[in-house]
């Protein structure tokens, strides 16, 4: 029997959080994932702002025109020019010199104000919230449906296979990326050209005219190549972690630890794809943010630019820097991804447990009303 960890509602024999009588509804999954995305963004944005500022100071950015902004939930291409969120005019009148992470936190807070640590939070949430909702709700729905199908064939007491969370997580990520990828491109264009919401339609039509319908999914393959394996490995590790300790209702601390471990494992195995995706996003950002905006210096002669494929990019990185090049940034990625995954899954599981207890209570109240003859005759 699965046990409940740190929960006031025990899971009775034969019952679990996937029981159709009590399991959380889609709208409850949406609320849980929204709260998780908000909490994760609030905690992770300052860390990424400091990391980006340190990178800019040390001149280790891949490009001087664009940089990749990530808060653990989403990746964003941002311009480094005078209109970019990291431009000197938006950072401070006098550039600050940082000696390390703690020094950067201290000086940014002192000279630029504490709110500067959350610069870029708004645009991040605009896309992070719907993406996270789609991803986590889709995962829960896929997992439950696959579990039901498997138990119909093998029996309710059959042990669930390891491929179930792997398939559910991978499918959920494909769905989320497919839906959100066009929105990310449009949002990037809006930020780079300072477009109003009324001009979004015009930008959308212009993009379709220049690049065609498939242009809305540019960068889709490298994103899938990194995010789908990450998602599959992450959910497989996390569900195995819960299964190993025989936990069905994890506490916040248990989910936090499981999320950190699972995120670290998934991040390690997908670092090469992350490196390739970063290179391709930066290259695409230069073309998308500058060449199409009429920046003659950035665009150069107007001639077709051949896109470099994922494996070709990987081959070039390997030729230049060897295997170490494909695992560049492993430590910063682990430091960033592990806590982000931990905060997100812990917040999501906390929301699930809250709504599960609420559903159990409502079910029991309806059952009591029926038993006392004051309610409906059916439950």
From TrEMBL:
One of its GO terms (biological process) is mitochondrial transmembrane transport. The keyword RNA-binding does not apply. Keywords: Membrane, Mitochondrion, Mitochondrion inner membrane, Repeat, Transmembrane, Transmembrane helix, Transport. It is a multi-pass membrane protein. GO terms for cellular component: mitochondrial inner membrane. It is found in: Mitochondrion inner membrane. InterPro entries: MCP_dom_sf, MCP_transmembrane, Mtm1-like. This is Solute carrier family 25 member 40. It comes from Anopheles coluzzii (African malaria mosquito).
């Amino acid at each position: 029997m699965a046990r409940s960890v740190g929960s006031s509602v025990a899971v009775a024999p034969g019952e679990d959080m996937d029981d159709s009588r009590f399991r959380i509804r889609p709208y409850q999954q949406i609320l849980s994932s929204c709260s998780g995305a908000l909490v994760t963004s609030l905690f992770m944005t300052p860390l990424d702002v400091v990391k980006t500022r340190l990178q800019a100071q040390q001149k280790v950015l891949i490009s001087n025109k664009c940089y990749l902004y990530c808060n653990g939930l989403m990746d964003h291409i941002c311009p480094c020019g005078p209109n970019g969120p990291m431009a000197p005019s938006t950072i401070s009148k006098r550039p600050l010199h940082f000696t390390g992470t703690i020094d950067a936190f201290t000086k940014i807070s002192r000279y630029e104000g504490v709110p500067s640590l959350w610069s870029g939070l708004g645009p991040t949430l605009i896309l992070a919230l719907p993406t996270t909702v789609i991803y986590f709700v889709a995962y829960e729905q896929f997992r439950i449906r696959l579990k039901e199908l498997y138990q119909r064939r093998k029996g309710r007491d059959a042990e669930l296979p390891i491929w179930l969370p792997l398939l559910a997580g991978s499918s959920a990520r494909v769905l989320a990326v497919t839906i959100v990828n066009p929105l990310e491109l449009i949002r990037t264009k809006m930020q780079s050209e300072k477009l109003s919401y009324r001009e979004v339609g015009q930008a959308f039509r212009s993009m379709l005219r220049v690049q065609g319908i498939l242009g809305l999914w540019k960068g889709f393959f490298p994103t899938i190549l990194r995010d789908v394996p990450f998602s599959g490995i992450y959910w497989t590790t996390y569900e195995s972690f819960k299964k190993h300790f025989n936990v069905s209702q994890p506490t916040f601390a248990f989910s936090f630890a499981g999320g950190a471990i699972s995120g670290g494992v998934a991040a390690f195995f997908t670092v090469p794809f992350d490196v390739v995706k970063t290179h391709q996003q930066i290259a695409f950002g230069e073309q998308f943010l500058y060449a199409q905006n009429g920046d003659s210096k950035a665009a150069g002669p107007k001639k077709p630019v051949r896109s470099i494929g994922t494996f070709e990019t990987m081959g070039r990185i390997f030729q230049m820097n060897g295997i170490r090049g494909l695992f560049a940034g492993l430590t910063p990625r682990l430091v960033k991804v592990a806590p982000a995954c931990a905060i997100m899954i812990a917040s999501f599981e906390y929301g699930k447990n809250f709504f599960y207890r609420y559903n159990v209570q409502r079910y029991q109240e309806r059952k009591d009303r029926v038993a006392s003859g004051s309610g409906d005759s059916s439950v």
